[in-house]
Design brief:
This protein has 1 helix and 34 strands. The chain has one helix at about 5-10; strands spanning about 20, 55-60, 70-75, 75-85, 90-95, 100-105, 115-120, 130-135, 140, 145-155, 160-170, 180-185, 190-195, 200-205, 210-215, 225-230, 230-235, 240-245, 250-260, 280, 290-295, 300-310, 320-330, 345, 350-355, 380-385, 395-400, 410, 415-425, 435-440, 450-455, 470, 475-480, 485-490. The strands form 8 sheets. It has a 5-stranded antiparallel beta sheet with strand order 1-27-26-25-24, with no helix packed on it.
Length: about 500
């Protein structure tokens, strides 16, 4: 989902379920991982969605299904992004509840303690822009003044840690007045790709400061992050999915555009009118054969899967390719209506979609249209869809009623899906004060919940559909609306 929108909604306001249907394990298993981006930290811990392909997978095994302990790092902030560098130190990008200031925190990997913090310039996105950790363990983020920053963490001679801006590159020449950068991801040639809410897509060479940009069609808005694999960048607007490539001079160019069904309006449990998903690359060969999003069709949304290569335009012409759609598969059909503000999990031939329909965000972003219908209760749930082995069409493997209140993460280290579930009243804004939040493990082969442990009740532990990050030591770092919860297996 759009971290800007989720944070805006949050900051304007200060038990198990059985699986439906049945399935057998995928004989081909999950994976491979998407290619390791040479410009980022290790896959699984480099971005909000794990990697630059936004697969929402990790190679690291999680805390498991046994007894766990949990602790809370209170930061008085919403923390949607937790990334971890080669030194094992988690870095989180948060936005303070009071003052709505984007702030970077360095956490102690042993205790979760806040070791250092750095406030950034505040823009109209409230610091909700996506960030990633580069291959030198620097956090790459755009501040409210349209500067692309690299923020390093350093151990000082007095034994304390500090966070410093080690590089700054202005994007102001490509960002129109009143617009702001939303999505950010590095390409394979050293350039950084970005997308603005107003539909400008660009690349920046941080060595020379050269910025090149392309405006997408007028009237289209970007509310989610962008994804990169070798040769391709995927951007979803509130009207269409785009696959872009790079011209010889670095200017983005459209390879193909695929419009989708936006539905009659914004659904309850979503924060914008259009897809709630960041595009995800996946595939059983090299992890990039397909790219996927969800649409906003009613009453049930569809999982849309496209072949990344598309159909080429006429020989010798500059005509973009034509998108080749593998499938448009209705998901979460165990309920009368469905929708999501989450990205999907995508690995091998499998895609997992979570239901946020009716999720009670505390408030809506400024300018958000009325939802259609005007209200709904939150039920949660997940669907697994597999691309057919011949690459022609998709099939629903299972539907599950596990009420995920976070964006789940698939661990290929132990073949488990890790998430946080919600139980109790979740119908109206503010009713989550009495909801219970549970660390939960789900079997990706069947959709069944394998274990559940109570984390807490009320606002402190509400993950607000943000995703968790599993560290190399098996610790799950889950952002909440007040900080970060760490879940560890009991030793």
């Amino acid at each position: 989902m759009s971290s800007r929108l989720r944070l805006t909604a949050l900051l304007t306001a200060a038990a198990a379920f059985g699986a439906v249907g049945s399935a057998s394990a995928d004989p081909d298993g999950f994976g491979p991982f998407p290619p390791q981006n040479p410009a980022t930290a290790t896959n699984g811990v480099a971005t909000m969605h794990g990697d630059s392909a936004s697969s929402d997978t990790t190679p690291d095994a999680g805390p498991g299904t046994g007894a766990v302990t949990s602790s809370r790092t209170a930061l008085a902030s919403a923390c949607p992004t937790v990334v971890i560098g080669s030194d094992g130190y988690p870095v989180t990008l948060c936005t303070t509840i009071f003052g709505q200031t984007p702030t970077v925190h360095l956490l102690d990997p042993r205790t979760g303690a806040d070791l250092a913090s750095l406030s950034l310039a505040k823009g109209n996105l409230f610091g909700g822009v996506y960030a990633y950790l580069d291959n030198g363990d620097d956090l790459v983020v755009v501040d409210g003044d349209d500067n692309l920053l690299r923020i390093g963490h350093h151990l000082r001679s007095d034994g304390d840690w500090s966070l410093t801006v080690d590089q700054s590159t202005s994007l102001a020449s490509a960002v129109p007045a009143g617009d702001s950068v939303v999505g950010l991801s590095p390409g394979w040639d050293g350039k950084v790709w970005f997308a603005t809410q107003g539909g400008v897509v660009g690349t920046v060479d941080t060595t020379t400061g050269t910025v090149r940009a392309l405006a997408l069609p007028a009237g289209e808005q970007v509310d989610n992050s962008i994804s990169t694999v070798p040769g391709y960048t995927a951007v979803a607007t509130d009207h269409a999915l785009y696959l872009l490539t790079e011209a010889a001079d670095g200017t983005p160019q459209i390879d193909w555009r695929a419009p989708y069904d936006r539905g009659p309006g914004r659904k309850p449990g979503q924060l914008s009118w259009g897809t709630g998903a960041t595009p995800s690359f996946f595939g059983p060969g090299n992890g990039t054969e397909y790219v996927t999003i969800t649409d906003n069709a009613a009453p049930h949304e569809n999982l849309l899967v496209f072949d990344t290569t598309g159909a080429p335009g006429p020989v010798g012409s500059a005509t973009p390719s034509t998108p080749v759609q593998v499938c448009a598969t209705p998901v979460l059909t165990q309920y009368p209506q469905s929708g999501t503000e989450d990205a999907v999990i995508a690995s091998g031939r499998s895609v997992f979609v979570t239901d946020t329909y009716g999720y009670p965000y505390p408030a809506l972003p400024s300018g958000a249209p009325a939802s259609v219908p005007s209200s709904a209760s939150f039920q949660g749930g997940m669907t697994r869809v597999d691309v057919n082995a011949d690459g022609d069409g998709c099939s629903v493997v299972w539907n599950s009623d596990v009420p995920s209140a976070a964006l789940p993460r698939l661990s290929l280290g132990d073949d488990r899906i890790y998430t946080v579930t919600a139980t109790g009243p979740m119908g109206l804004a503010g009713s989550d004060t009495f909801a219970g939040y549970h660390y939960a493990v789900v079997d990706p082969a069947t959709g069944q919940e394998l274990s559940s442990s109570l984390l807490g009740i009320g606002l402190l532990d509400n993950p607000l559909q943000m995703t968790g990050t599993t560290g190399p030591d098996g610790t799950l770092y889950q952002g909440t609306e007040t900080g970060v919860v760490e879940v560890r297996a009991e030793s």
